[in-house]
Amino acid sequence: AQKVTQAQTEISVVEKEDVTLDCVYETRDTTYYLFWYKQPPSGELVFLIRRNSFDEQNEISGRYSWNFQKSTSSFNFTITASQVVDSAVYFCALNSGGYQKVTFGTGTKLQVIP
Amino acid sequence: SAVISQKPSRDICQRGTSLTIQCQVDSQVTMMFWYRQQPGQSLTLIATANQGSEATYESGFVIDKFPISRPNLTFSTLTVSNMSPEDSSIYLCSVVGQGINEQFFGPGTRLTVL
Prior knowledge:
The structure holds 2 protein chains of 2 kinds. By secondary structure, chain A is an all-beta fold.
């Protein structure tokens, strides 16, 4: 069975602050994929990143960075110098076992205050 | 990435009626998925829509309540039957892109049942 835990339900930060969204996952499979999605108030899910279990290299994309640590089964997401447009619900997700089904965490609602 | 459209984008329905949601993809895809997102909740997979065969339903979801069609590799429909207020949710169509386990989502259909 696979499981994704996002312990932070809601986070509020002031604009320009850095913020880290936590994600802890569980799976018995050695091959798996981790994702982050953004869901703005409009409701559409926006794909942000995919990582496979064999690549622990951290990734940076503009103000976004991801820290993947297999030792702690975590895949945390950091937004640097947050902006109001970053306000959204962020979902961490896991796919493993060779199946195409994706298991989502419960999401973290981020509010960036101007 | 795959471009996915859904119709309708939103609807308000009366209890006991049914609504059919359409999902159109701009390219042929093998697997299509239907998710439900209840208010303030995460995404839950309803079923996998298979072309040429019956859909595969997840635990807690049945064909009589959520019949699915998949007539070709670019189109699928989900019907929410005999609706009740508990069916008020966002329903999202999803496909797997060309990248391994890269999953993309449609804009969603916001359903309100009165």
